[in-house]
Amino acid sequence: MGPYHPESPVRLQMIEDQLISSRIDSYLDFRLAPEASVEDICRVHLMEAIELVRDNTPEEVGAYYPLDSDTMLNKYTWLAALRAAGAAVAATDAVIAGEIDNAFCLVRPIGHHAMPSAPMGFCVFNNVAIAALRALEVHGMKRVAIVDFDVHHGNGTEAAFVDDPRVLMVSFYQSPLYPYSGNEQKRTHMVNVPVPAGTKGDEVRKLVTEKWLPALHAHKPEMIFISAGFDAHRDDPLGDMGLVEDDYAWITQQIMAVAREYSQGRIVSFLEGGYNLSALARSVVAHVKALAELDV
Amino acid sequence: MQTAPKMTTALYSHPDCKLHEMGLQHPESPARIEAIEAQLQEQGIAQHLDFRLAPEASIDDIRRVHLLDTIEMVRDNTPDKLGDYFGIHDISINQYTWQAALRAAGAAGAATDAVIASEINNAFCLVRPIGHHATPSTPMGFCVFNNVAIAAMRALKVHGLERVAIIDIDVHHGNGTDEIFAHEPRVMMASFYQTYLYPFSGNERQRAHMVNVPVPARTKGDGIRKLVTEQWLPALHAHKPEMIFISAGFDAHRDDPLGEMELVEDDYAWITQQVMNVANEHAQGRIVSFLEGGYNLQALAKSAAAHIKTLAQLD
């Protein structure tokens, strides 16, 4: 989205490099994401929103179509968005089929701000919501959960499921911060907890223990999806919270314990934010290591 | 002897629209439709209107604006018996809400088709549940499906119109309509809305095709006429809409209990005339208007009558 945009392709390269230098890449099953079908995407987005992305693809590299002040389409955005959403579908199918235990989708554009009506906030299609609705509508699951630990409120995910109690959403988000939403919904299946700037791991662990886990145990999800943003890290330039790599490993382990109890361990996790490249890469490794239960 | 109407104005409604109710004390009540119908009779307007029964909308028509998950949520949470409600975001679903919502959205489609086919000059949809707060994924604020957005999308997608406009004169920001068309420059939206009032949204979209003007409480007709003249009309003339849709809420009236603005019936007639002038110039006069808010029954009925009388060009 331009040379100085924080949500850049380098994020994926840094994570890939870190997976290799941490020597965990050999333990992972690397899979190419297929393209999503429009049918899968339109469970979450209006046709109008899908066509908006498809029909405004610029013809040349270096040209951008702005959707809002910080979300741009380039020549490859449509293709990338189909792959990101396709990863959501394929990973969900593979986990439910028992081919794999869990999955991390290292994809861009990211998704949790994307509203049913339109992309926003670096996000094009809401990958995690597409995955959750696939599990519900295609695989006939009755209850799933979405865990969002990005520093920003997952407003798109909340909008998609605010009236769907089959989907429990648990998150924390720094408040006040973009997108300045999140406090208005008082619903038992939306456990989205605002926290102030400066919040550190001990307080986040406390809210996970006291608010997320009881809600998750009550909901008994048959599958868990994670919006894994790492911009609540203390080194992140866009967030002002104080998490470290160990906190991400701990949160991931808590989710895995719930998944083992109710969901046959089924988890699909998606990259969301995280803009300090080094902190992002180290945090993703901590997260993926916990998912893969690697002790290397 | 009555003067013959210069225009054919249709009035779309359906008895089911009076069966949707949200509790005895709820301001958005079936009595609103009855008050307007009585006023149209009393003022001798009714006899000049072409009364039409709203058909049920198809799911395809609604899906242009709402997610299937949301549509099914409304359908599947219909209570079994009268007096039971399923509540979400300031909207309660009763035994007849689904049927009424299908008729309200169906009026949108049928009126749009009839106006484009030139069967009628324009139409007023006297329907409930109302629509302009409903977002793609959330019925809210007394609204279930966004009728005006369903109509505009039908004009674009089925009839192939290239540019339409939506005028929203409700005291509340039409957040659902704004959200649906924020990225759709074929649809120009012009509105005013009282600030610091439900749904507390509206200032975030700075786009040429979204002329949604916040105004403070106690704004009167002269202030509104000024902003219509200075902000709406230039934008409308630049957009050259081929059809105009109106979200006709009458809760900016000075007697309204939910809004704190100070419009009177004449202001609604004046605004309607301005919209008609634009429609006559660019849109072959094509207008479809929808009931939105308005909660003082007397003020509502008189204001709606002023609006409809202007649409039908009756003296």
Please outline the major beta sheet of chain B: 8 strands, parallel
Provide the CATH top-level class of chain B: Alpha Beta
Following the backbone from N to C, one meets helices and strands of chain A in this order, namely HHHEEHEHEHEEHEHEH
What is the CATH superfamily of chain A? Histone deacetylase domain
Overall structural class of chain A, as computed from helix and strand content, comes to: alpha/beta
What coarse outline of chain A follows from CA principal-axis ratios? globular
Backbone structural class of chain B: alpha/beta
Fold-level CATH name of chain B: Arginase, Chain A
Count up the helices of chain A. Answer: 9
Q: Report the CATH topology name of chain A.
A: Arginase, Chain A
Number of domains of chain B: 1
Written account of the structure:
Chain A has a single domain, classed as Histone deacetylase domain (Arginase, Chain A, 3-Layer(aba) Sandwich), CATH 3.40.800. Chain A is 39% helix and 14% strand. With 296 residues, chain A is α/β, with parallel strands linked by helices. The mean pLDDT of chain A is 96. Chain A is globular. In chain A, helix 4 runs parallel beside helix 5. Chain B has 315 residues and is α/β, with parallel strands linked by helices. In chain B, strand 6, helix 6 and strand 7 form a beta-alpha-beta unit. Chain B is globular. The chains are: A alpha/beta (296), B alpha/beta (315). At the A-B interface, helix 3 of A face helix 3 of B.
